[in-house]
Amino acid sequence: MEGTSIKSQRKKNRQDRLLKLIEQNPLATDEELAASLEASVSTIRLDRAVLGVPELRERMRSMAQKATSRLRSLKQNEVVGDLLELEPNKWALSVLETRRDMAFRKTDMVWDHYIYAQASSIAIAVVEADLVIVDSMRGEYKGHARVGDSLVARAKVGVQKDGKYIVSVRTKVGEKEIFVGRFIAAIVSQNEPV
User: Fold this and answer.
1) Tens digit of pLDDT for each residue in 24-59?
2) Which end of the chain has fewer beta carbons closer than 10 Å to its terminal beta carbon, N or C?
3) What angle do CA 20, 150, 78 make, to 5 degrees?
């Protein structure tokens, strides 16, 4: 009887830790969660089912629907990648799944303009206004992406003054940062010449 109690306590602890890990990183795969919790993938899937936590694709779909409902400065199809989280004028998160057609000819290296386009579009998307443009940008490529990589871009709004927002964007592949950019996103009046 005592052994069952210990097992059920371990199971509850693992499930609590699983919920915390998913809250911290909703993009974590079952394989990554299993490695973090030192459990099998099937155990993680069972725990998710018991806890009512959907699989990664469903979590991403739900996050995308919620985020795009708050989107104002761009249309959903204008965002490069999938917008997964958006807190207007504060922060945003997007993921870009890289494909073969995004690579330099005869290599598996992703063109840099896809990395920039994702960062630029999320810098615009995070600003809550009808028309937003990138006024200026300073950035640095710190690594490379390969076909099949998931590019995770996080935007954070800093100082805002006179319709201009400083937006920092960091793009990672896994734990490796591959791009850092500082964008000045400017709100433009519909009547104002661009």
Assistant:
1) 777 788 888 899 899 898 888 888 888 888 787 777
2) N
3) 105
Calculate ∠ Cα 106-121-123, nearest 5°: 130
What is the distance between the alpha carbons of residues 80 and 72, in angstroms, rounded to a whole number? 15
Is the CA virtual torsion 141, 147, 149, 154 positive or negative?
Answer: positive
Residue ranges, the chain, pLDDT below 50: none
CA-CA distance, 91 to 74, in Å (whole number)? 15
Range list of β-strands (E), the chain: 82-87, 91-97, 132-141, 150-161, 164-173, 176-187
Give the model's pLDDT for residue 97: 93
Q: Is 38 helix (H, G, I), strand (E, B) or coil?
A: coil
> Exposed/middle/buried for 5, CB within 10 Å: 0-12, 13-18, 19+?
exposed
Query: How far apart are alpha carbons 28 and 30 in whole angstroms?
Result: 7
